[in-house]
Structures are given as C-alpha cells and as structure tokens.
Amino acid sequence: MAKIKKSYVCQNCGAVFGRWEGRCPECRQWNCIEESVIPTPGGGYAGAVAEICPMAEVKMHRVERISTGMKEFDRVLGGGLVPGSVVLIGGDPGVGKSTALLQVCCNLRGIKSIYVSGEESLAQIAMRARRLGLPADDVLLISDTEIESICAAASRAAPQVLVIDSIQTMQVAGVSSSPGSVSQVRESAAHLTRFAKKSGIAIFLVGHVTKTGGLAGPRVLEHIIDVVVYLEDTKSRFRIMRAIKNRYGAVNELGVFAMTENGMKEISNPSAIFLSRRQERMSGSAVMVIWEGSRPLLVEIQALVDTSYAEHPRRLTVGLEANRLTMLLAVLHKHGGLVSFDKDVFVNVVGGVKVVETSADLALLLAIVSSMKDSPLPDDLIIFGEVGLAGEIRPVANGQERLREAAKHGFKRAIISQANVPNKAISGLRIDGVNKLSEALEIL
Ligand code: TYD
Ligand code: MG
Fold it and tell me: Whose CA is closest to atom 15 on ligand 1?
C-alpha cells in the first residue's frame, strides 16, 4: 500500500525537510519552504531480493540512434537520439526550444512522434508548423498537463519520440504543490523517466531557465536525466546548443543554429561566424581560436583600457571569467611591467560567445596591451595560449587544428606557445612561438 508522507521542500534549492521552517537551513533563503505530499511506495526491505548479474554476461544490443534531421542537433546529442533516453532542453523563454523541437518532430519522417504542449493550444502549434512549412504527417499533438494521462495516451499511441513542452507546466496527481514548483517538476520528470525506460520511447523535456540561470528551482533534474542540453542566446540571431551532461556521448559538444523567419536553421560550418568583418584595424581587439567540443571556433576578443576616476578601478568582463581577468592583469604587471591599478578595464567576447577555456589568456592580454598603447594588432594575426602566474605561456590542446583553421580563414601570422609550434610548417602562416609573456610583448 502506498503511504502518504508529508514533507517540506525548499522551492529554491530543493532540500527536503521533515518540518516547516521560515528559513531554509541549506540555502539560507527566507520563505521558500512549502508543504508537499509525495506518495512513497510502502513496504520495507524484507522479502524482495535484488537480482545479481555478472558484468560479463550482460547482454548488449546495438542501439540504433534516431536522427533528429539536424546534423548539429545530432552532434550535440552524441550522434542522434537514443531510444528510451530522456533529454532535457533548457534555455531562456523565447530562445527557440519549442520551435526546434517542433521541427525535429516534423522532420522525423516515418517515425511517429507526439508533441505535448502545456503552454500552447493545438491550433497554435499546428499554425506554427504550417507557417514553417513543416510536414505534419507523422506528428501527433496533445494539449494536456497531467503526466499520468499523457503517459497513458503515449502508451496507446506508441510513438518513438515524445516531446514534453514544458516540464514546468506538468503535474503528477498526488503531489499537492502547484505546477512549476520543485516537487512537481521533480516528480513529473521522475515519472517520465521511468516511463521512457519502460517503454523505450525517447523523451525530450523542455525546461525554462530561471533568472538566476538554473533550471526551475534547483538543478534537481540534472541527476535524473540522461542528457542535459542548453540552448543559449547570443544577443544575435545565432543560438548555441551545448550538452552539459550526456550519458551517451561527449559533453561540451557544440551546435550552432540561426533563428530565422523560417525557424531554426543549422549552421554546419560555424567556425568564423562570430568574427566581425571590419574594414579598419582597431586597437584593443584580438582574434583567437577556441576549441568547442570537437572543433575550432574563431572569436574576437575586445578590451578597453581607460583612465579610472573611481576609488576602485572597474573590471568588467562579458563572456569571460572575471577572476581570470584580475589574475591576468597581475601577471601583466609583474611580468610585463604594465600597470593597470589606475585604469578601468572592460573585456568583451564578440558575438555573445562564452569562453571558458584558458587558451584565451594570451589573446586577452595582448588585446589589453593593444588598448593601453592605442596601437592596433595586425588584422591577420591569430593568438592563443594559456598564461601562467609565472608569466609563462603554456600550450593548449589541439594546437595544430586551431592553426590550420586560422590559416583556412586567411590569417597569416600566429603568436602561440612555443610548445604548440608544429614540426611541419603550415602553408601561408608565419608562427611565432613564445615561452614567456615578455617575448610576446616584444614581438608586438
Ligand atoms: P520559441 O520556440 O517559442 O521559444 P521557447 O520555446 O524557447 O520559449 O521561439 C519564440 C521566439 O522565436 C519568438 O520570439 C519568435 C521567434 N521565432 C522566429 O524568429 N522565427 C520563427 O520561425 C519562429 C517560429 C519563432
Ligand atoms: Mg516554448
């Protein structure tokens, strides 16, 4: 018999408590704990014996992945959609999650899919599909928010792919809190995950991201789900899709799309789309090659260094880590002899790209120096390399591929770590290998 248990769940961090409290002991937020009733299966440990199986005897069958019809999407998923898997697509409202998944459903020719919307009416969805000129033959629609009835309908229709748009609108009977609350989101996702595993249906969950950047409430979902993909806005029409967890492939694989009037279009060769095509050379700008998943991406980094009139000079980064900038400015002082304590420093990665790689260090520092001296860097120059605290320039992974990509796009000079200089010359590219920051500054 199922036992009804009352528990109190923090709507901010997802922590569960036995009694109500005014302030969450975990995340220290006030007034965020709500009562929630979650049916727990009864029975104890007695009786049931778990099955044991030697690993060598586990039967493995080759899974046929389902193609989403978009190569960029497949690449982020690790080569297509795995039957029985649950994929969460997170992103800001309006970034294009519904559009992308509707396109996937319609383009799964010969594969039955169900698109469940808790946000839009059937007419709205059908109209959007028609406007985008999508084939509608094998797509079934449901407009509902009850997980149990959706799963029952899906069992009957037996599709291969099910889209739930969005997980925040769904609810499970027996859980008392409102849709969108942590308990509902978590229980709905858990229910759907069990359903996916049992039925072999691949499920896409749409998840809205909150203002603070987390998926509704906490990141509770990420543990339950097989693949977590984020669709990021770039402040332009480009959208970047990135897997941050993938049980079936590599993470950090990146897909690039453009939001057009005809829906999401994949950009199959995105390596240079974020470079501005400028006419004149500007000081404070440098081009680098970052590595995203399994391919290089050329991006421009801009720095503005200006006299500061504030007590504490400003340090501002967009698309880069702020702490790293502070650290690099200290290195620049100590090993390059250039002071910035009396200067505001602003740094921006063009195109809304977020750079987490350390390979941006050297390009960032040289962009800063270029702005300080108001002297533009050559516009056919590419720079990458990690900068250490001792002022040493360290090599980064995939150096050769980065250089080749830069050469392909017409860059003629490179300043990189000496350890990254390839044995064989790359035609059309003059490469300066440096060991120390001071050497790089000398070349300029
Ligand atoms: P949508 O897929 O509804 O976003 P989400 O589900 O992530 O909230 O996309 C909505 C936005 O995309 C909306 O602002 C309009 C724009 N859009 C286009 O530019 N072109 C299109 O073809 C479509 C369908 C939407
Ligand atoms: Mg939507």
Answer: 94
Question: What's the 149 CA to ligand 1 centre distance in angstroms?
Answer: 28
Q: From the CB of 94, is ligand 1 less than 6 Å away?
A: yes
pLDDT confidence of 441, banded at 50, 70, 90? very high
Quickly count: other Cβ atoms within 10 Å of residue 100's Cβ: 26
Atom of ligand 1 nearest to the CA of 231: 7
Minimum-distance ligand to the CA of 231? 1
From 106, 259, 264, mutation site for ligand 1 pocket: most ligand atoms within 8 A of C-beta: 259
Pair type for strands 3-10 and 33-40 = antiparallel
Long-range contacts of 118-121 (CB under 8 A, 24+ apart): 118/143, 118/144, 118/145, 118/164, 118/165, 118/166, 118/169, 118/170, 118/179, 119/165, 119/166, 119/169, 120/165
N-term to C-term CA, the chain: 76
Is 91 close to ligand 1, i.e. is its CB under 6 Å away? yes
Whether residue 142 contacts residue 108, with contact meaning beta carbons closer than 8 Å, is answered with: no
Q: Is the peptide bond before 181 cis (omega within 30 degrees of 0)?
A: no
d(CA 65, CA 414): 41
| Cβ–Cβ < 8 Å for 166, 206 | yes
Report the nearest atom of ligand 1 relative to the CA of 263: 22
Tell me the one-letter amino acid at 105: C
CATH code reported for the domain at 64-268 = 3.40.50.300
CA gap 346, 362 in Å, rounded: 16
Please state the pTM of the whole predicted model: 0.77
Helix (H) / strand (E) element for 188: namely: helix 182-199
Q: Where are the domains of the chain?
A: 3-40, 64-268, 273-443
CA of 169 to the centre of ligand 2 (A): 11
CATH of 273-443, one of 3.40.50.720, 3.30.70.1290, 1.10.510.10, 3.30.230.10: 3.30.230.10
User: In this predicted structure, which of 65-74, 246-255, 299-308, 338-347 has the lowest mean pLDDT?
Assistant: 246-255
52: exposed, middle or buried (Cβ count in 10 Å: 0-12, 13-18, 19+): exposed
pLDDT digits (tens, 9 = 90+) for 93-118: 889 999 999 999 999 888 999 999 99
Cβ atoms of 289 and 405 within 8 Å: the answer is yes
State in Å: Cα 201 to ligand 1 middle.
26
